[in-house]
Design brief:
Order of helices and strands: HEEEHEEEHHHEHEHEEHHEEEEEHEEEEE
CATH class of the largest domain: Alpha Beta
Number of domains: 2
Largest sheet: 6 strands, mixed
Distance between the termini: 54 Å
Structural class: alpha+beta
Strand order of the largest sheet: 6-7-8-3-9-10
Shape: elongated
Number of helices: 10
Radius of gyration: 25 Å
């Protein structure tokens, strides 16, 4: 391999953006607490978390609107901490569109080029390309007040992209839109990202939106990143109980280990994923997704013996909810633990409140946690 090829290969492996031991304090309150994160060139990364988790503050420091208390922000190895926002080559889209009401769509999009003193012909060319990209060519001469909310947000996105920034930051950009329009624009954003190959860092509190858009998700809690990975990996194998609780619905069962691959839940011996280092009678927390569990009538359970590697417990139906594509059964175990079981509409059972059932799940489908806090599970009563 030649030296030039080696250099290019090494460069391609380097992160575009690096956050290094980033902190932001307001008095003694840590809004961002020692975050380190690498962002790859061309990726769609979402910061997901509840209000006050630190996600928007981190984005604001990356944009240059806030200064870190300590730590560094690097782009291609160069610090941005002392670089003004308008010199960072970073585009920004907010939840509030912040369009100029007295300017046309075309002039709103052209504004970043005008303040950068771009040639008039170049401005025209780039604005026309952006109008076409966001499918607003027929609205070029309208004012923002003559557009729908979704159209205004598209103008804001076009304005952020028109000067071809290398990085686009988006802070809850679709939060003010209704569900149907939000989903349509999510699809457009995903396709736009594929076409342009731009690096996007996106902030949302909506887990479904994060799963729908992102290649990777960083989950924030109390100023820290507590989970990082693809939506699939974070959902299937959450790294901790908080992520399991926050991302999707979860059943949590408190048990005591009775070996490396078994535990006692209430009065039932359960098979669990082999987990090294478990002490006898150590407290463990099992997490089972509602769609990974099955509810069977007593007759079905008698006619279908439990397979090896599966668990079965007795429960009583407390509520049945039809959700269109699925139906959920809320149940209470013999020891009073609440669980939720989800079945596709084609597989629903004629169950009613008070009916006895057997709940089954595969040991391989249940995550095992040895450390957790009750606050991690506060959003759940069985499942949420």
């Amino acid at each position: 391999m030649s030296a030039v090829i080696k250099e290019r290969a090494q460069a391609s492996q380097q992160p575009l953006v690096s956050l290094r031991n980033l902190n932001k304090y307001y008095g003694e309150f840590a809004a961002v607490d020692n975050i380190s994160l690498d962002i790859k060139e061309g990726e769609f990364l979402t910061f997901l978390g509840s209000s006050g988790s630190g996600k928007s503050t981190t984005l604001s420091m990356l944009a240059g609107f806030d200064s870190p208390t300590s730590g560094d922000i690097l782009v291609e190895g160069k610090s941005l901490v002392n670089v003004a926002p308008h010199k960072r080559d970073i585009g920004m889209v907010f939840q509030r569109y912040s369009l100029f009401p007295h300017l046309s769509v075309k002039d709103n999009i052209a504004f970043p080029l005008a303040i950068r003193r771009r040639d008039l012909a170049e401005r025209e060319r780039q604005v026309e390309a952006m109008l076409k990209l966001v499918q607003l060519s027929d609205f070029a001469h309208r004012r923002p007040a003559q557009l729908s909310g979704g159209q205004q947000q598209r103008v804001a996105i076009a304005r952020a992209l028109v000067y071809e920034p290398r990085i686009l930051l988006m802070d809850e950009p679709l939060g003010a839109l209704d569900k149907k329009l939000r989903e349509e624009l999510q699809d457009e954003l995903r396709h736009l990202h594929r076409r342009l190959g731009i690096t996007i860092v996106y902030v949302t509190h909506d887990q479904e939106e994060a799963m729908r858009l992102s290649q990777r998700i960083a989950i924030f809690s109390h100023g820290k990143i507590v989970g990082l990975g693809s939506g699939f990996d974070l959902y299937q194998n959450p790294p901790n109980a908080f992520v399991a609780s926050f991302l999707g619905n979860s059943n949590f069962l408190k048990a005591k280990a009775s070996g490396q691959a078994c535990a006692m839940f209430e009065t039932v011996a359960l098979a669990i994923r082999p987990t090294t280092g478990l002490d006898e009678a150590q407290d463990v927390l099992l997490m089972v997704r509602p769609e990974k569990a099955q509810a069977l009538t007593l007759e079905q359970a008698r006619n279908n013996p439990v397979s090896n590697g599966w668990n079965e417990i007795d429960a009583t139906v407390s509520e049945v909810v039809f959700l269109g594509e699925s139906q959920t059964y809320s149940v209470l175990t013999a020891g009073g633990t609440a669980m939720t079981v989800k079945a596709l509409s084609g597989n629903v059972l004629p169950l009613q409140t008070g009916d006895p059932v057997r709940v089954r799940w595969a040991a391989a489908d249940a995550c095992v946690y040895t450390e957790w806090q009750e606050s991690d599970l506060s959003k759940t009563a069985g499942a949420h």
